[in-house]
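My current task is to audit a protein record that another person submitted. What it holds is a sequence and that sequence's fold in token form. Thanks in advance; the entry in question is below.
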Amino acid sequence: MGKINNLTEGPILKSLVTLSIPIIFANILQTAYQLTDTFWVGRLGTVAVAAVSISFPIIFLIISLGGGLAIAGTILVAQYKGKNNKEVVNYITAQTLLMVVITSVILAGIGYILSAFFVRLMGVDIDVFSGAVSYMKISFLGIIFMFTYMVFQSLMRGVGDVKTPMYIVLGTVLLNLILDPLFIFGYGFVPAFGVAGAAVATIGTQGLAAFIGIMLLLKGRHQIQLRLKDLKPDLPLIRKMVRLGFPASVEQSTRALGITAMVSLVATFGTLTLAAYGIGSRVLSFIIIPALGLSMSTSTLVAQNIGAGKIKRAEKIAKLSALTGFAVLTITGVIVFLFARQISAIFIPGESETIRASALFIRIMALTFGFIGIQMALNGAFRGSGNTMISMVLSIISLWVLRVPLAYVLSYHTALAEIGLWAAFPVANIIAAVIAMTWFGRGTWKQKKVTEEIKLTREASRETIIEEGI
């Protein structure tokens, strides 16, 4: 194990950068799973790209329903890390893993059974339907592995170890680069699965990552020790964690539902527009990774400093993160604006109309990327302090009060048509950032006392055991 960073002392910018860079790189690698799928599936044509595009938001929605539990674990682990209470860190690790694995099994089964229903609900063209269902079904089977590794990565981030997950993801993504074309196009005794082959390759590599993560937790060499005795359900603690994680689940699922609603709206304009949206949204998910990294690192830094009782330092971290996010994403947006057509052509070469449409979408969004950076940085601070409810409300406002209604009105009730879909993005980005800054300025987020609540729960559990003579 390498040197452990003390995130509650020293220069704030150094701590933010030290934590953010490995997280950003790990997120780039995670996104590479989807980008690799899109790249190789793009060789099958526009219909194949549309099949993957229609599947992604539904899968993301199911994943989001259980993702809040992992976030709850991250917050608690980080705050108790700030308190230097390793015993509680290990205990919460086991309970978080238990909850998320059980949740993943349930959601995987539901998603697999309802895959055809989900795709039909999206109202896609008949030529897209079969490929989308196959890709979705196989992807749902891999949710168990995905959730398991997600917990490992989140817990490691909570204690400030961001390099170990990065190395694991690097290895599995490199393997996925080989397996994707193998299963999509086939070779030798390996049959060609087509669109579904991308999902098969991803499941295999994610399963390997999950296995490695569990082994490292059991060995306890990376600041967290997973003990089998701690896997016995602690219902009072679980209820506390569910209450903390539920708003985060709603936040993520609300975001996923917003994406799903956008895809449904886009799909009514035909396969060409749907494919353009698929490429543009994938590029967006890749470009905003610096903001995601800052958001995650801000959560960890704020949580550890609040756990250590350093509220003023936590506030400074949030402000610096928001400023950094705005600057980095604005510069990135300018670059993307200038090279939008070339970027689009990487994913679907030779399809000039799809390239033109997706490049337009990208250009319309690009110059307001900086406001996404502000919103995500402040959301990270809210989550790190345990105020997951604030992040949930901001997410609902951003998507359901702003982006989706604007997209509908501008595309169906003005002469803009499909361009109205794209125009909703920059408007929503700016307004949502202003709302987040206003809420942060009120300072109410600093009043949450998460660790005290959990501590009382654990003491009550011990008293019950003593009284019952167990």
Residues 46-82 form the longest helix (37 residues).
